[in-house]
């Protein structure tokens, strides 16, 4: 079985990484209502990340989630440290997990990285959110991955993946 079709294997691998596979049918069905519901649900971001790995674009959700955490940092010293890590991981040209953002957004971050503010990644995060919402999210909903997950929960009477 190829890695792209073994969706259950991916869920269990995720479980081994500390992600509960006790996702409910109700939550999974809500994901199809909007990208916002998927990304703000309890297990949605983790399941979506597993799917994005099959598309080789999981850096998008990783960056988006890292930005959400970054915005909550109150210490300026920690903010500088985390901003530099975000920059070297996702923003700088040839970064190991380089995200697809436009040149003006990249240049603005480069200008502001010495004295990073709470909002210095907002534009890049907005761009990545739009990429995911417009591109990979519709494919996710149509994917065998999502369809099989939904079907397995619909046919499993106890409303969770694992008994």
TrEMBL record:
CDD domains: RGS_RGS13. Residues 34-150 form the RGS domain. InterPro entries: RGS (IPR016137), RGS_sf (IPR036305), RGS_subdomain_2 (IPR044926). SUPFAM superfamilies: Regulator of G-protein signaling, RGS. It holds the Pfam family RGS. It comes from the Eukaryota. PANTHER family: REGULATOR OF G PROTEIN SIGNALING, REGULATOR OF G-PROTEIN SIGNALING 13. This is RGS13 protein. It comes from Ardeotis kori.
């Amino acid at each position: 079985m190829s890695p792209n079709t073994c969706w259950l294997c991916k869920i269990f691998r995720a479980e081994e990484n500390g992600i509960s596979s006790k996702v409910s049918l109700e939550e999974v069905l809500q994901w199809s209502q909007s990208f916002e519901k998927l990304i703000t649900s309890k297990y949605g971001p983790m399941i979506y990340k597993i799917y994005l790995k099959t598309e080789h674009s999981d850096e998008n959700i990783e960056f988006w989630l890292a930005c959400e955490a970054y915005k909550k940092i109150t210490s300026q010293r920690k903010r500088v440290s985390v901003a530099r890590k975000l920059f070297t991981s996702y923003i700088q040209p040839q970064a190991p997990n380089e995200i697809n953002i436009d040149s003006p957004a990249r240049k603005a971050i480069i200008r502001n990285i010495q004295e990073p503010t709470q909002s210095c990644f907002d534009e890049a995060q907005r761009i990545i959110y739009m990429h995911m919402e417009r591109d990979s999210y519709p494919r996710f909903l149509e994917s065998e991955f999502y369809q099989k997950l939904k079907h397995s929960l619909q046919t499993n009477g106890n409303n969770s993946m694992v008994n």
